[in-house]
UniProtKB/TrEMBL annotation:
Transmembrane segments: none annotated. Belongs to the PNP/UDP phosphorylase family. It comes from Actinoplanes utahensis. It catalyses: uridine + phosphate = alpha-D-ribose 1-phosphate + uracil. One of its GO terms (cellular component) is cytosol. It comes from the Bacteria. The keyword Glycosyltransferase applies. This is Uridine phosphorylase. The keyword Transferase applies. One of its GO terms (biological process) is purine nucleoside catabolic process. Its EC number is 2.4.2.3. One of its GO terms (molecular function) is purine-nucleoside phosphorylase activity. Keywords: Glycosyltransferase, Transferase.
């Protein structure tokens, strides 16, 4: 086992879906995977491996925020040999033409986190971006499934409750579609260690309009996102 994941080497597939919520990992394993086995419960951050259309896939909770997601991303790649990581999460929309339940693929991730400023001594504003092959495949899969998918930049924020909503307005002016809390760290660490990463999100609330999905809308919307994530994952060499 690694410091934060209880599985043995070989327990985790090379393709991993990363929801923030460990209970979403359990729901995905029970709903979409065959023969799913729970390989870790350390800190309640559940992880499962099973098969999807005959291909081995794991789904690992990564927690909320970049410090937590960084730990799981780092250990999955460096301790378990994971090659592809697809985050599947919820987000708050900023773009006025997005609606609850819409699916987004994050081509790049702006961030207010200091983690990359520390990495580069504050001398470079590193641009965390999605792996192009994963992004292209996700768009193809979504189109084949008939699920509209919006590709664009997002914000990975340190704080869920912001004191600076004015910054969200500015980011929206620059085309930033939505806010979540992990993608920049996942993209950066995957790039650093030679893995592929993509973030796919479902709009669970609209920050500017003050709307939020109910639980029925969530399940339907999240199912579309999960199917895109799984199909994209198994298409990887
Ligand atoms: O739905 P998940 O994957 O947890 O993602 C979003 O939801 C959490 C905040 O409620 C943050 O982790 C944010 O990134
Ligand atoms: O990080 C998140 C996730 C969902 N909704 C938000 O407003 N922020």
């Amino acid at each position: 086992m690694s410091v934060h994941i209880g599985g043995k080497p070989g327990d985790i597939a090379e393709r991993v879906l990363l929801p923030g919520d460990p209970m979403r990992a359990k729901w995905i394993a029970e709903t979409f995977l065959e023969d799913a086995v729970c390989y870790t419960q350390v800190r309640g951050m559940l992880g499962f491996t099973g098969t999807y259309q005959g291909v081995q896939v794991s789904v690992q909770g990564s927690g909320m925020g970049m410090p937590s997601a960084s730990i799981y991303t780092h250990e999955l790649i460096n301790e378990y040999g994971v090659k592809s990581l697809i985050r599947i999460g919820s987000c708050g929309a900023l773009a006025m033409d997005l609606n609850l339940g819409d699916v987004i693929a994050a081509i790049g991730s702006a961030t207010d986190s200091n983690m990359n400023r520390t990495r580069f001594d504050g001398l470079v504003d590193y641009a965390p971006v999605a792996d192009f092959s994963l992004l292209r495949k996700a768009v193809e899969v979504a189109e084949a499934q008939g699920t509209p998918i919006r590709v664009g930049p997002i914000l990975a924020a340190d704080a869920f409750y912001t004191d600076r909503p004015d910054l969200y307005d500015s980011l929206a002016d620059y085309g930033v579609l939505a806010v979540e809390m992990e993608s920049a760290a996942i993209y950066t660490i995957a790039a650093r260690y030679g893995a592929k990463a993509l973030t796919i999100l479902t709009v669970s609330d609209h920050i500017k309009r003050g709307e939020a999905m109910d639980s029925a809308q969530r399940e339907k919307g999240f199912s579309n996102m999960v199917r895109i994530g799984l199909e994209t994952a198994i298409a990887q060499a």
